[in-house]
Protein 1
Amino acid sequence: MTDAACELDPRSSREALALNTIAGIAVRPFAALAGFYRRRAMLTRLTQLDDHMLKDIGLQRFDLCDAMTLSSGEDVTRFLRGRADERRVAERGRQRMRARIASSE
């Protein structure tokens, strides 16, 4: 095989890049819509959990209600993760405060 046979035609490379770009632009809205429905399905499954199971993952029932009011452009998963993180940080603060009070007595 010669070196000339291994060379790529720059024109076909540009055409392939353009085709990939156009395909990506065409698919992007459908991928976003699929992600939206996937996150909403996850939210629906979470609403079926009992309160004890929700507490185990750091959520409360009203967190799910708040998440249902988000617009389609907002990420439900990120919102719920933020709520769980806020609750976890607050609980750590309460534990530290209890420990300080107990040690001062």
Note: The longest helix spans residues 10-47.
Protein 2
Amino acid sequence: MRILVRPVRHGVVLNYLGQLMMLLGAAIVVPAVVALPAAEWTMLLAHVVAGLVAAGVGWLLRRSTVESAIRPVEALVVGGLIYVVVTFTLAPIMRLGGLSWIDAIFEAMSSCTTTGLSMIGDTSAVPRTLLFTRALMQWYGGLGFVILTLAVLVPPGSSASRLLTTQLEKGEVVPSAVAAARSLSHLYLAYTLAAILLLLMGGVGIFDSFCYGLTTVSTGGFATHNASVAGFWWPSLLALIPFMLLGAWPLTLYRRWRAEGLQAVLGDAQVRVLTGLTVIWIAALMIVFRTTDAALGHGAMDAVFVGVSLQTGTGFTTVSPAALSPLGKLLMLLPMNIGGSLGSTAGAIKIYRVLVVLALLRMTIFRTVLRPAVVTPFMVGGRSLGRDEVETVAGFVIGYIALLVLSTACFVAAGFDPLGSLFECSSALGASGFTVGLASTALPVWAKLVLTFNMWVGRIEIVPAALVLYPRVWMGHRRR
């Protein structure tokens, strides 16, 4: 199989990376509108220079390479590399905001991957522009740089359409990739503006409303206050809940919702399971808060909000995970690693894959009592799955668990608490953003790099990460 690997064409990869970098350059300049009234001149200059450099490099890549029909493996590689490019483009800005270089890389990766883990211990000690930049990059990363680029820069009929398939659900039919990307972008923007408006109506300040609105719909979780959303007026918390759920729904469901109405939502298996799991976690948290963690004084509103935030992978919290009992932390680990829907802004294993694995387990059990001649179709969510797709899902789940165990083992071997290590690595790999306090400036450099790698893999997923890191994808023998 190694001999048959078809390597990527470097020029094609660079050409499409150039397109993504041109949009990235424009996106990085946007926070200058916050730096100007705040008189944060260093941050203003940093954003303008970084934006111009990114856009300029992107334009040069486009000019020096030839656009060609992109292959599936090249689309996956481009989708994986863009987050590395974004991270190292943002890192100098984070460095000027007061972070060390390693912390700046960590923060930048956490931003664009919508993870939400942070090296900023005190949000009041960093420029407001930096807080807005983190929120905006989570918003861009939530929808996906690929989708935004297709919506803004790519003309209809372009061969870049294959890039969209790396961002959507399996089996989703998209007649026009550019039209679909624009439709998704418009809906994403509309939901974001609605969230911001509701926060403003709830008495949240303008700056905070924009930052929290951007990071809610993207299920990013970066906050402008050290206590996340603890202390928010309860109507403001309730206003965030529907948008956290919307962020964890499949992106393409919004288009079907407009075309088919509410039936499209009610008939979606992932939405039903997401809702059911959320109710289960809320009930379980209520029990924990009234029994083992009763001394902390958390109530029903805390259980409702944290339960939704956990299952959607948003990362906002009204409680301190570090203060919870081991039972409370173990309970949080389950939704953190399940995550939202496939094709959503949420991370982790994803509900669709969990359904596939459960269906595979069920079929394996029932095959032992069926006659050998009986042929049973493999059905999940009303769809018949082929063997290749089932194997792909099984391989992903195995890879996810293996990476989680390996990264946790590294922390435990270095003397960190086993439960805390598993919690932090799950948060990074699952892009949930909850922390028990390990993710801080006191963490060793190697541990920060492990979490940074987990965030990258968790966002782009196992297969694209493996392709980017596999040498034969870059240097194999070319065949016609």
Note: The beta strands are 379-380, 383-384.
Protein 3
Amino acid sequence: MLVAQRGYNRGLPPLLSGTCSVTDPRLPSDPRTLIEPRTLKGFRDHLPPQALAREGILDIARRVYRSYGFVPIDTPALEYLEILTGKGSDETDKQLYRFTHGGREVGMRFDLTVPLARFAAQHIGTLGIPFKRYHMATVWRGENTQRGRYREFMQCDFDTIGTTSPLADLETVLVVHDLLSAIGLESFTIRINDRRVLSGILERLGLADRSTVVLRALDKLGKVSPEGVAAELAGHGIDAAASADLLKLALLSGSPDSVLDALEPLAGGTAPGRAGIDSLRALLDGAGQADVPAGRIVVDPSIARGLDYYTGLVLESFLDELPALGSICSGGRYDNLAGLYTKQHLPGIGASLGIDRLLAGLEELGRLETRETAADVFLVYFDEAHRGNYLRIAAALRRAGMAVEMAAEPKRVGQQLKVASKKGFPLALDIGRDEFAAGTAQCKRMKSQHSTVIDWHGDVPVLVKAVAAELAAVRLGG
């Protein structure tokens, strides 16, 4: 008896005689236990629409950063544990992913600023100062997840190392403003403060040695009620009168000039307080000279930034329509951070775009573009006899700077256009047998469904120029 063979010449065993004929498609069941496909809590997959949106914002950030002269760097995801611990706060130390590997204690970076300090201390002799860098990379924090906040997320930083110039502070605020504007945001507010103002009032109240607990308590305003913050301060032994002064400072609001005037009696009588107030006034004056719209920057004495390394300007940025979302771009000056790794004084200032939180906000507001393709043009593949012509046209469009996706198989035009519409292609280019014979092409704007007939008569450069014009019109809202 002939035995039916399975997987001829593929190294698979033959089927048992009599159990299955060559016309019977049934195969023995797979004895393996399947692993459930799932992600860890606080970690996410990014499908094409979300990944494309994120890459689009990163491209904008890269362009804005470079327009101010910042250059890219990269650092390892893993650092020696001693590099990371104690450099942010007790809270970030608790959130740190750490483990032992090869007898070495290592940790995964929780932000990009501490690795920058190590990087600058190690390489500044080669880099020179001031050194302006940007860095876009993933960081990890084992914290509680919430809206727009995950355990694995991307930061998009820029920093200036090696100068205490007030212009560096101003430029940081201007970059944040230009970045959020370039992303297309119209209603946002940049809230600024200076840690020296807070240091001034602490000095006046005799609490200079309690700055860490005070600043962390004040940093919770907005998430915790003033009464809750007062209770936390009381728990640290701070009396009611001092607590009332601290809350009075933190809850000041109004125009920048009115807030700064109100800060004078609270903190202006001390050297650090005076320096902080004067610095804020100079920054606001410079922002006005750089044509930042009035009201876009607000002085907010409650902005403390919980990380211990900030020493001067601190800033946070909020979507006006979603203030509860939290800051989408934050940072400040840290003049002593690199001192942990080098005796050379390397002051720094910078900020970080919280891209995942921003994307969550844009999605909630319904302003997140949901394309499933990175291509500009979908080239309908209808007539297999003209396969070579399609390939030449696609290549010519790409050489002209357009991204083109060609259908994989010559299926019905309607079916291909349905897929193109679903994926969000701006344009579809349809050239069938009749169009090739007539020297024409149908160029369809997928969103408006407007079609244009292009007369190109086999002249590919003419076709490319016409498609480029159509794409330009679509990008202008046509």
Note: The first strand starts at residue 71 and ends at 72.
